[in-house]
Amino acid sequence: MDKDVISTLNDLIETCKDGEEGFKSCAEDVGNSQLKKTLLTYAASCSASARELSALVTAHGGNPETKSSLSGTLHRRWIDIKSLVMGKDDEAVLNECERGEDVAKKSYRRALEKDLPLDVKAVIERQYQGVLQNHDAIKILRDRAHAAAL
């Protein structure tokens, strides 16, 4: 059992669970049904990534993380408070989604800097590419919501 590998994977599992919960929370706050569907698709993708990482933790002799992080919980509460104060317009919600994806990008970059087995690094790299795509897609959606609000 390699504690550093398991710790790194468990950190990413928390990140994925934070993303899943964050996207679900944001989906509840948007009015546009197509956007809601898109955010729920991202939530499902985060969930699938967490399951894949959990399997790697088990394969490396560890116990997978089962919950999201405290910072993820705090971020969702911040989204709730902010949307009460500002109203739940789609642009504001998408700004929060993008902020969450910024955190995910950082977590994956940190993981990729570590000396990990090739099988683990390959999965993390593939998932990181998905995080980058999600981030860019969220940014485009946010920019469209901003333009529509003008």
From TrEMBL:
Residues 4-114 form the DUF2383 domain. Pfam families: DUF2383. Gene3D superfamilies: 1.20.1260.10. Signal peptide: none annotated. NCBIfam families: PA2169 family four-helix-bundle protein. This is Uncharacterized protein (TIGR02284 family).
